[in-house]
Specification:
The complex is a heterodimer of chains A (362) and B (248). In chain A, 39% of the residues lie in helices and 19% in strands. With 362 residues, chain A is an alpha/beta fold. Chain A is globular. Chain A has twelve helices and 15 strands. In chain A, helix 1 packs parallel to helix 6, helix 3 (57-69) packs parallel to helix 4 and helix 10 crosses helix 12. Chain A folds into two domains: 4-200 and 230-243, Rossmann fold, CATH 3.40.50.970; 247-361, Rossmann fold (3-Layer(aba) Sandwich). Chain B has one domain (24-242): Thiamin diphosphate (ThDP)-binding fold, Pyr/PP domains (Rossmann fold, 3-Layer(aba) Sandwich), CATH 3.40.50. Chain B is 36% helix and 17% strand. Chain B contains nine helices and seven strands, in the order H-E-E-H-E-H-H-E-H-H-E-H-E-H-H-E. The chains are: A alpha/beta (362), B alpha/beta (248).
Chain lengths: 362, 248
């Protein structure tokens, strides 16, 4: 295991992407993630890649579409309103089955909103704002080490599934510093090997072993053809729902309260669980690590004989709560503890609110 | 028996989806002829756009990507990073390039991106059924300027080539027309020159083709050629607008 170093989240994310094989970055400055393009501007050229500051996030996602279609391993990042602009391109990337890694260091919304941490991009990340039927696997790490490990694996995962892979890390994680062990750099695919590794990539047909040309597209004017294409994509998504889904369950057995939380909020819940334990209340946690696919199966682990309250705990107005309700499937009412707009509750506040919910149930 | 005329190498044998009398086919063909003459068909990546050229990959028999409306220059900038040794071009109409895609084209030129853009200007939106474009002439009737375009309503038509020529990163800009054999031959020479500028790494290049849209102009193909000559060329003058000094 590598030695631990103290790093700011955003810089650790950028380094993890490079070590994971990403060599191209296209981005536009936006708080609270601007350290990432700055890091990439310093690092990528000397590590055999390229950094390009785009004119807009629309430009950045379409540069990604071009570069990744031509075999480049692309990692991009932005924050909430910037991710909104990128949604158009994400729909194209998914339809054309072009891989890349997308990091959202999210902040409060709607609109320009604010620059403080938020989780109100849950719908944007799990439902998408682009048009049509598509899905993007999205990870929601809870600390910088977990984010580094996920981002490190993402470039090759994206290549393997030929689809974008996304990471939702709220602004708190981008801006804070934590000790982190950085994994060893992966062997990267050199430009001359792209045609062999990625036969679907645009290289000019002379570079192809079979000399056949490649077309990267998403237009299918005949509805039968489009339906067939979307069905094919969803065969893949259904497979990924089973293969990629990840969560962590903590102390569910005998728990009177079960928190459901991801990212920064899950850390506050862990502290709230300790506060509740001191008061003699047993609380557990379901922490989705993938938010699409959502770990609905985790809700079968709940000790429904003991549990009185399932509480979706969020830095949004309850966007994840809809998925929690699907997971619980009516076995208990689902409650919500939340702050939004960049406001973050203390663990004491979470514990107090949870106690009130529990008392109302008794 | 000696064939007197054959398919252009670089063009598939698919029937094009362009309307009778439309000059897209000529533009497609001369670009492929030049790439063939340069021996570069297999080393080229083309980027289509939204509009009548959305299906261009069915006709140009090379590696191609179909990009979103107006975004082709951003896509080509990305391709260029991953494939620095290939010829890269975008092919965009005026609805695509001069309206929804102005941000992308301006900044590709601004960065001095080393790819070539072919800009089809027929002063109207073709694919969507003949709406007004930024390039639509004053007085020209379209489905969204049914009384004819007025300055008060929509300003004066945008001269994209002149605008881009004012950007330092744009190395080569030429406007051609596809209304006569002489003009088509000149357009083919411009295509060749644009690719040479790219291969010599001199900066961004754009060739504008004044083109016809008989279906949406409501004119017979022959009359459309005359309309282009009499109305478009006076407003959009032909010729080299900008040329790099170091071009060999």
């Amino acid at each position: 295991m590598a030695e631990k170093v103290l790093m700011k989240g955003n810089e650790a994310f950028a380094e993890a992407a490079i070590r994971g094989g990403a060599r191209f970055y296209f981005g536009y400055p936006i708080t609270p993630q601007s350290e990432i393009p700055e890091y990439m501007a310093r690092e990528l050229k000397k590590r055999g890649g390229a950094f390009l500051q785009a004119e807009s996030e629309l430009g950045a996602i379409n540069m990604t579409y071009g570069c990744a279609s031509a075999g480049g391993n692309v990692f991009i990042s932005s924050s909430s309103p910037g991710i909104a602009l990128m949604q158009e391109g994400m729909s194209f990337l998914c339809s054309a089955e072009v891989p890349c890694t997308i990091l959202n260091v999210s902040r409060g919304g709607p609109g320009v909103g604010g620059i403080q941490p938020g989780q109100a991009d849950y719908f944007q990340m799990t439902r998408g704002g682009g048009n049509g039927d598509y899905r993007i696997p999205t990870y929601a790490p809870a600390n910088i080490q977990e984010a580094v490990d996920i981002i490190y694996d993402a470039p090759f995962l994206a290549d393997e599934i030929r689809n974008p892979v996304a990471i939702l890390a709220d602004g708190m994680m981008g801006q804070m510093m934590e000790p982190v062990a950085l994994p060893e750099p992966k062997k990267q695919i050199m430009p001359e090997d792209v045609a062999a590794y990625k036969p679907w990539a645009l290289t000019g047909y002379n570079a192809k072993p079979d000399g056949k040309r490649v077309v990267v597209k998403s237009l299918r004017l005949q509805p039968e053809m489009l339906e067939q294409h979307v069905e094919m994509l969803f065969e893949k998504y259904h497979r990924l729902e089973k293969e990629l889904v990840r969560h962590e369950s903590v102390d569910l057995e005998g728990a009177e309260i079960v928190f459901v939380a991801f990212g920064t909020m899950s850390r506050l819940c862990t502290e709230a669980m300790e506060i509740l334990a001191e008061k003699g209340v047993k609380a557990g946690l379901i922490r989705p690590i993938t938010i699409w696919p959502f770990p609905y199966g985790a809700f079968d682990e709940i000790d429904y004989g003991a549990t009185k309250a399932v509480i979706s705990t969020e830095l949004s107005m309850g966007q994840m709560m809809e998925d929690v309700k699907i997971g619980v499937s009516g076995r208990l009412p689902v409650e919500l503890i939340h702050r939004t707009g960049g406001m973050i509750p203390t663990s004491i506040e979470v514990a107090e609110k949870a106690m009130k919910i529990l008392e109302a149930r008794k | 028996m000696t064939p007197v005329f054959t398919y252009t190498k670089g063009m598939t044998e698919n029937a094009t989806s362009y309307c009778p009398g439309c000059t897209h086919g000529i533009a497609n063909r001369i670009i492929m002829e030049v790439l063939d003459e340069m021996g570069m068909l297999g080393n080229t990546i083309g980027v289509g756009s939204i509009g009548c050229s959305v299906t261009i990959h069915q006709f140009m028999d090379i590696d191609m990507l179909e990009s979103a409306h107006g975004r082709a220059p951003a896509v080509a900038s990305g391709i260029r990073r991953a494939q620095p040794d290939k010829i890269v071009f975008t092919y965009q109409g005026d609805g695509d390039l001069s309206s929804i895609g102005t941000g992308e084209i301006v900044h590709a030129a601004h960065r001095g991106e080393k790819f070539t853009t072919f800009f089809i200007n027929n002063a109207i939106y073709g694919m969507t059924g003949g709406q007004m474009a930024p390039t639509t002439l004053i007085g020209q009737k379209t489905t969204t300027s049914p009384e004819g375009r007025t300055v008060e309503q929509a300003g004066k038509p945008l001269r994209i080539s002149e605008m881009l020529a004012s950007i330092d990163g744009a190395a080569y800009i030429e406007r051609c027309a596809l209304d006569s054999p002489a003009h088509v031959r000149a357009a083919k020479r411009a295509v060749r020159k644009a690719f040479e500028v790219q291969l010599q790494g001199l900066g961004f290049g754009l060739v504008e083709f004044l083109s016809t849209c008989p279906s949406n102009w409501g004119l017979a193909p022959k009359d459309a050629l005359v309309w282009l000559r009499e109305n478009m060329i006076p407003y959009y003058p032909l010729g080299v607008i900008k040329e790099p000094e170091g071009l060999k």
